[in-house]
Amino acid sequence: QVQLVESGGGLVQAGGSRRLSCAASGRTFSIFAMAWFRQPPGKEREFVAAFRWSGGNTNYADSVKGRFTISRDNVKNTVYLQMNSLKPEDTAVYYCAAQLRSVSGYSHWGQGTQVTVSS
Questions:
Q1: pLDDT tens digit sequence for 3-43
Q2: Phi, psi at 65, each rounded to 5°
Q3: Count of C-beta atoms within a 10 Å radius of residue 118
Q4: Dihedral sign computed on CA atoms, order 116, 117, 118, 119
Q5: What does the pLDDT read at residue 5?
Q6: 51-56-62 Cα angle (round to 5)
Q7: How far from 93 is each of 9, 29, 33, 36, 53, CA to CA, in Å?
Q8: With 90 as the cut, is the pLDDT of residue 50 above it?
Q9: Which helix (H) or strand (E) holds 82?
Q10: In a 10 Å sphere around its CB, with 0-12 CB exposed, 13-18 middle and 19+ buried, how is residue 86 labelled?
Q11: How many CA atoms are closer than 13 Å to the CA of 81, on its beta-carbon side?
């Protein structure tokens, strides 16, 4: 199994920046891809960004393109989401997720971390 633990959420002013972390542990060799999703208040969960665990194939939701960057620290097995130029509409619970090899979809999820952007 793979365990994911997010951190870094909090309150930030519009226009500010925040970096979220997702520490992966367990059978990390079985990870194929990692992603960030978010769930705004009263809305459904939505895709934010993703890339292959081995690197490459990075893609972003249109709403965050140019403002958010997904990256990874290979030594720490940690995935980051650098969020710049934050907007109130970025307010959400942010989740990291892992897709395992030979498994369709994201099967492992973290507990989520709240990001609130004040106007």
A1: 999 999 999 999 999 999 999 999 999 999 999 999 999 99
A2: -60, 130
A3: 11
A4: negative
A5: 97
A6: 55
A7: 8, 27, 20, 10, 23
A8: yes
A9: strand 78-83
A10: buried
A11: 33
